[in-house]
Write a structure and sequence with these properties.
The complex is a heterotrimer of chains A (489), B (95) and C (483).
Chain A lengths: L2 H5 L7 E12 L38 H13 L3 E2 L2 E2 L1 E5 L9 E5 L5 E2 L2 E2 L2 E10 L3 E11 L2 E7 L6 E7 L6 H18 L11 E11 L9 E6 L2 H20 L8 E4 L6 E3 L12 E2 L6 E2 L2 H9 L5 H12 L3 H8 L4 H9 L9 H15 L13 H12 L5 H14 L3 H8 L7 H14 L1 H8 L7 H11 L5 H12 L2
Parallel strand pairs in A: 13-14
Antiparallel strand pairs in A: 1-11, 1-12, 2-6, 3-17, 4-5, 4-16, 6-8, 7-8, 8-11, 9-10, 12-13, 14-15
Helix pairs in contact in A: 2-5, 3-4, 6-7, 7-9, 8-9, 8-10, 9-10, 10-11, 13-15, 13-16, 15-16
Chain B lengths: L3 H10 L6 H18 L34 H5 L10 E4 L5
Helix pairs in contact in B: 1-2
Chain C lengths: L1 H6 L2 H9 L5 H17 L8 E4 L19 E4 L26 H8 L4 E5 L33 H8 L5 E6 L5 H7 L2 E4 L19 E6 L2 H9 L30 E5 L9 H16 L3 E5 L7 H16 L21 H12 L2 H14 L5 H24 L2 E5 L15 H5 L6 H6 L3 E9 L2 E8 L5 H15 L9
Parallel strand pairs in C: 2-3, 2-4, 7-8, 7-9
Antiparallel strand pairs in C: 1-3, 4-6, 5-6, 5-10, 9-11, 10-11
Bound molecules: magnesium ion and zinc ion (ZN).
Magnesium ion binds next to loops of chain A.
Chain lengths: 489, 95, 483
């Protein structure tokens, strides 16, 4: 992280926040991490189980080759060092959602070490199994007169990749932004559904404060299991504020695990009455070390798509897009392919790339239903390309083009044909426009007088009338200069 | 010597209740065994790698192909307490 | 034919069935009835069985499967679908698994149907079968004595002629030591050669299934149909080379190494006498007997009693009262999840299991891992190296199987360390994962003594060959144990 980026931390009072993330990614395999049960998508409880994922006596785990393959792809995407040999450990603790009394996870010899995504360094990536789901059923499932919970093992054993960053983030917004990039990267890889609401992407944040510019790390707290980008930013913000208050009032921050309640905005400690966890990690004797054969590595390499960060760079380098535009297109998985398809559609006149990028992100996207993929809309890439080309050639004004786009969004179709049908072609200079301008000046004598006296802003009503009369087909700049010319200013 | 407190701490980790009359003998027996196994502390093992698996094979991975799951009745059949669709446990939130 | 049936070993019975002189159903019923009689005899029986089939399996297989229908007794800890599989523990009392262990299915496929489940030390933790939650088993040579353990029910049943053959499991000696104490053959194959899927685990990196039989030929025949890679067990592999029924009668040129560390101090005089006499027999068959050294073998037991309990403490965490087995809810605290765990495990586990769960949890706990578990794994490396070095000098290693003959019931239950010393000679091979067999080599004070023969990893066929040759020369007569 550059000093410049680190400098404007959100923490008050000369403090800066140091933030690291731990992200659990549910892998989009067909079967669970250590057994052959198909992954579950909301089926009735306990219908996707077998002796292995129920932790029945005598059952043994066998690791899923595709989960390892996906792990390698993630490692390649993050520029990690791929361990030629990695080891599964047992993490021992008791909880009803953990059928064996231990979670099989990787510990000190993970699949991937190091790397970076954007400005954030990666500490490690490892594979593990997900826990089952506990559903509080209350009085309907009473045990000896007491409320009960139901354990559903459908999710138990789902493969997870856990991505741990170095503490390189400084602000909540930066954390949210980076997480979006990570999500797009994972989606491009096709290794996960990356849906936060459905829990296929879950994020914990480690947060500490220190005097701005200090090289030291303060005591960190862990904010658990935030399941939307908004909550993550808000949760981190709230925790930074809480810690800052503790420090400012002369207290010390204690290391603990915390929960952020998005409804109340409150942060509460998850520390149980029990002593700190002692997970008694040891190498899983039922699984041999995972060794990465050259063929597996080759397969993972061959499966790598172009990644968002690479794509953004390419869009800037090859097409001269601004960095912001390139990232806006590349970091949202479905925008860049749409943009590139439009560019390649052979529209005549051809759209200028930066203009096309602007039309995709600034004009088209806000016109679509929340979250709709432009590729799935009625606006064909070729239609948008033609429209932007016509605007660039000044054959359609910006205002008219917006109307055409509205039509394309609602009905689809061909941009040129709509322009033709609706008579939205630009009025290029000449007598027709001169006449409309003269009429507009006459109809707005007061405004015209004020413009003559030097009040440039008073031109608005006159322009407005010209636009109304021409249905927006006239070019705004040209109209303004014609008005000024006729008024002699 | 393993103390009473250590015994109770380990028992808590192991989720094992020890009745009052089990604690002292457990401390004594664990001490005897741990003294015995502590003899390996005398060996010079600097630089010796640990062996956690004696079989020297690798790549025992499983193809990502689904197989049939247990019918739910069978999955729940041996549970000490189960509703129609799941295992029942005292709520971890309670108590 | 019934009186004659008892004299038939498994291979001989198989030959009779193949020749059409005996029906598999008749043999099944013969052993089923004998096992049921032992089970129903309560205190006056041998206490070998935890379950006996009510009837022969329906639809006897057509054709002639390789094992011809010779029925098999299986240690309680193998999961058998719909048949109690309790691993000797009250916490699993009456537990009916929904699946069958790979090795049991394979043997049934090969024509050795399950007819009984045998008693064992709880979760295979013990050397006497006194730690069973269902009462002890007894030694057919002397009913006041233990049969050894933890596969004591299987060993006693085979020795007494209550089963033609049986499956056991060996973690630190749990097949070999009871075989020795009961005067039969027991083999622990190379780790990884037999699937562990469906074996209720004690210590995963050590557990291995193996045969308990009246003679070496039967052991080889059974093992032949047990080995092989199982896709459900990542630590199993395709057995390299081939196993066959052994025929060797001589030991010409075979170099047998006797490790001083495992054949002197701590071994009972009567056991040593029988062992040395067996070595003389081997010499007579042409073997070359030389001394070898296994410098770290004296530390094997200490390493084992860290590694095995550590793995066990984790393997037994799944017995939590949620999905199967016993659950104890405290009426005064029905809402208390932790109390449910701790009470269930308090009530369900016997004293030795508690001891080892505690020991293993301690050895893995924060601050102790390096001193205990980490070091024990290093010792394991040294022991494996010792064996590799020794096998540069000799072909096979021979030791007494157990330091003593069968001891009296109750004699060692109050002293865990004394009990652990039973495994002194067998544990080094377990830690190294190498194959080892015990065959009876004589009597001491009227009780059987076993000799252990071990070889390099996957030399199981060579081990069986040598055992077969030596067995022929020794001519041990175990008929005194038949009931
Ligand atoms: Mg994790
Ligand atoms: Zn499963």
């Amino acid at each position: 992280m550059s000093e410049a980026a680190a400098g404007n931390g959100a923490a008050p009072g000369g403090l800066e926040a140091v933030i690291g993330l731990e992200i659990h990614v549910q892998l989009a395999t067909a079967t669970k991490m250590f057994c052959s049960c198909a992954l579950s998508f909301g089926e009735p409880p306990n219908t996707h189980t077998c002796p292995v994922c129920l932790g029945l006596p005598g059952s043994l785990p066998v690791a899923n080759a595709r989960a390892v393959h996906f792990g390698l792809m993630i490692g390649l995407a993050l520029g990690s060092e791929l361990a030629p040999r990695s080891i599964f450990h047992r993490k021992n603790y008791f909880y009803p959602d953990l059928p064996k009394g231990y979670q099989i996870s990787q510990y000190d010899e993970p699949l991937c070490l190091g790397g970076a995504l954007g400005e954030v360094r990666i500490h490690r990536v490892h594979l593990e199994e997900d826990a089952a789901k506990l559903i509080h059923v209350g009085a309907s499932g009473r045990i000896h007169g007491s409320d009960a919970s139901l354990v559903d093992f459908n999710r138990g054993g789902t493969p997870l990749a856990e991505i741990v960053t170095e503490p390189d983030l400084r602000t909540p917004e930066q954390a949210g932004e980076w997480l979006r990039l990570l999500r797009t990267t994972l989606r491009a890889l096709g290794v996960s559904d990356v849906n936060m609401e459905e829990g296929s992407l879950r994020c914990d944040a480690n947060i500490s404060l220190r005097p701005a510019g200090s090289g030291q790390l303060g005591v960190k707290t862990e904010l658990k299991n935030m399941n939307s980008f908004r909550f993550i930013e808000r949760g981190i913000k709230a925790e930074i504020a809480r810690q800052a208050k503790v420090i400012e009032t002369g207290g010390t921050v204690v290391q603990e695990t915390l929960h952020f309640d998005p409804d109340s905005g409150a942060i509460t400690s998850l520390r149980s009455k029990e002593e700190a966890h002692d997970y008694r990690y040891f190498p899983e004797p039922d699984l041999l070390p995972v060794t990465i054969e050259p063929a597996m590595l080759e397969q993972a390499r061959a499966a790598m798509p172009e990644l968002p960060a690479q794509r953004a760079q390419r869009l800037t380098a090859e097409l001269g897009l601004s960095e912001d535009s390139a990232r806006a297109l590349a970091f949202r998985g479905e925008l860049a392919p749409y943009f590139e398809a439009a560019l390649a559609a052979g529209a005549d006149p051809a759209p200028e790339p930066q203009a096309l990028a602007n039309w995709v992100t600034v004009e088209l996207l806000p016109r679509l239903q929340d979250g709709e993929d432009p590729g799935g809309s009625r606006v064909a890439p070729a239609a948008l390309a033609e429209l932007v080309g016509l605007v660039g050639a000044k054959r359609v004004s910006v205002g008219a083009a917006r109307q055409v786009l509205d039509r394309l969004v609602s009905d689809g179709g061909d941009a040129g044909a709509i322009v033709e049908q609706e008579g939205l072609g630009a009025i290029g200079g000449g007598e027709e426009l001169e006449a409309v301008v003269a009429a507009a000046i006459a109809a707005n004598a007061d405004a015209a007088e004020r413009v003559r006296q030097g009040n440039a802003k008073a031109i608005g009503p006159i322009v407005g009338q010209v636009m109304r009369e021409t249905k927006g087909r006239a070019d705004g700049t040209e109209v303004a200069s014609l008005i000024n010319a006729q008024l002699g200013v | 010597m393993i103390t009473r407190d250590e015994v109770l701490h380990v028992a808590r980790l192991a989720r094992l209740e020890l009745s009052e009359d089990e604690i002292e003998p457990m401390a004594r027996e664990l001490s005897a065994v741990s003294d015995y196994v502590a003899t390996i502390a005398e060996l010079d093992l600097d630089g010796v790698p640990p062996t956690s698996h004696v079989v020297d094979i690798s790549g025992a991975l499983r193809a990502d192909e689904p197989r049939e799951c247990l019918p739910r009745e069978e999955a729940l059949d041996q549970a000490p307490s189960a509703g129609e669709d799941g295992f029942l446990v005292p709520s971890p939130q309670a108590g | 034919m019934s009186a004659g049936l008892l004299e038939l070993g498994a291979a001989a019975a198989r030959a009779e069935i193949d020749a059409g002189r005996l029906s598999a159903a008749e043999l099944f019923d013969f052993y089923r009835d004998r096992a049921a009689a032992d089970r129903d005899a309560d205190g006056s029986g041998l206490g070998c069985f935890t379950w006996v089939a009510a009837e022969a399996p329906a639809g006897a297989r057509d054709g002639s499967p390789p094992l011809a229908g010779v029925p098999l007794a299986v240690k309680d800890l193998f999961c058998t679908r719909g048949v109690p599989s309790q691993s000797g523990s009250r916490i699993l009392e009456g537990y009916l698994p929904p699946y069958t262990a790979t090795v049991v299915s394979r043997l049934a496929e090969a024509g050795a149907p399950l007819f009984a489940k045998t008693n064992q030390d709880e979760f295979a933790m013990g050397s006497s079968t006194e730690n069973s939650g269902f009462g002890p088993s007894r030694n057919p040579w002397d009913r006041d004595r233990v049969p050894g353990g933890s596969s004591g029910g299987s060993a006693a049943a085979v020795a007494a002629g209550l089963a033609p053959w049986a499956l056991g499991t060996d973690t630190g000696g749990s097949i070999r030591q009871p075989a020795a104490l009961c005067g039969i053959v027991g083999m622990k194959p190379t780790y990884g050669s037999v699937s562990r899927y469906g074996m209720i685990a004690f210590a995963s990196s050590l557990d291995q299934a193996g045969p308990l039989t009246r003679d070496v030929g039967d052991a080889a025949l059974l093992l032949l149909h047990m080995v092989g890679r199982d896709p459900c067990d990542a630590t199993s592999l395709e057995f390299p080379g081939s196993l066959a029924t052994p025929t060797a009668e001589r030991l010409d040129g075979v170099r047998l190494g006797v490790p001083g560390e495992l054949s002197g101090e701590g071994i009972e005089a009567g056991v040593l006498d029988a062992f040395n006499a067996a070595l003389e027999q081997a010499r007579g068959l042409g073997a070359e007997i030389t001394g070898v050294t296994l410098p770290h073998a004296p530390h094997a037991l200490a390493a084992y009693y860290v590694i095995a309990p550590a793995e066990a403490s984790s393997n037994l965490a799944r017995f939590d009262g949620v999905r199967y087995g016993m659950r104890h809810i405290d009426d005064a605290r029905p809402e208390d999840l932790v109390a449910m765990y701790t009470r269930t495990r308090h009530d369900g586990f016997g004293p030795e299991v508690k001891r080892r769960v505690m020991l293993g949890t301690y050895a893995l706990s924060s601050g102790y891992y390096d001193a205990y578990y980490g070091r024990a794994q290093q010792v394991r490396t040294k022991i494996a190296e010792d064996f590799r070095a020794a096998f540069e000098e000799v072909d096979l290693i021979v030791t007494p199987t157990a330091p003593t003959v069968a001891f009296e019931l109750g004699e060692k239950t109050g002293d865990p360390l004394a009990m652990y010393l039973n495994d002194y000679c067998t544990v080094p091979m377990s830690l190294a994962g190498i194959p080892a067999i015990s065959i009876p080599c004589g009597l001491s004070e009227g009780l059987p003594v076993g000799i252990q023969i071990a070889g390099p990893a996957f030399s199981d066929a060579r081990v069986l060959d040598a055992a077969h040759a030596l067995e022929g020369a020794l001519g041990f007569d175990g008929s005194a144990a038949l009931v």
